[in-house]
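Protein fold
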Amino acid sequence: MMGMGWRYGAGGMLAALVLGAGWPGTAAAQFALPSSDMSSRQLAPSGGSSLPSSPGPTIVPPSMAPAAMVPPSPGGGVRPPPGMPGPGSAATQYSLSLAARFGGRDSPQITTGLIWRVFPAQPDTLGMFRVVKEERGANPMIALPAGDYVVHVSFGTVSSARAVHLKEATREMFELPAGGIKLEGRVGDVPIRGNQVTFDIYRGSQFEPGDRSPLAQGVTSGNVVVVPEGAYYIVSNYGDTNAVVRSDIRVQTGKLTDVTVSHHAAVILLKLVNEQGGEARANTSWSVLTLGGDVIKESTGAFPRVILAEGDYRAIARSDGKTFERNFKVTSGVDGEIEVIAR
């Protein structure tokens, strides 16, 4: 009972996003990242956001639990690279200035939502690469002794790592092939409000074989998810039954892709009554089935509310040891009540 209806557009530059957690890429999987970044968080953007659509979207990172990541050593201490002076040393330090932008030389600089981590180029005596410095900002300036390091930056689900040889004041510009996805659900021309509709984002196309885990799950309308440039498909769930739509999209670097998913569904209120227009019976058990006998939804109560895709259904009500039923039809966008007469 799935429909397909969607439209999307890539509009404007993705220039000012706020994101609470990063997604370490393959190049950084061997490094020891703080455990505080392993949970998914949701932050509202700063007032300087310049997204080209409706004001105030939330930036949503996907759930993250990379198995290769381990926290720093107990007590929060940082081991310096082999042969490098430890904390408190009088060794000369040099400034490392960091920045990132979307794609090529003429692309805009990313102004917020970046997480920077600096690692030694060589492991410690335990074979670990532990964080030397961590910063969250658009253009941090980090003081470090001369030596070799690996700098890792993350922005949403996008990350990059680079080896840096520091022997004088140095500036490094990272180019991140990232774009944004903003999601909305509609029935006809009417937006679906609140968290009635949620979205899961997967890499690739819905038509590619194999099972995949979602890159982001349970995203609600108006939120923006930052992802690497490429192809994705969206699974939009309106309610918790069979109103599901799948949409393939493509994300471009530096662009915000607005995705509007059109659902063909309606909200139905069920009532078991003794006569038409009568009071609903309490403590009624309900089953909603397709005409072919597939169970769509089961619930208990006087006024169960169910969101159903357009189509034909049978409602079965059980009360006081008796069973009553009625066939009914759902028309997209036509919300209403279905009364089952207890006789």
User: Anything to note?
Assistant: The first strand starts at residue 6 and ends at 13. The chain has no helices and 25 strands. The chain has three domains: 11-65+93-176, 178-262, 267-341. The two ends are 31 Å apart (CA to CA).
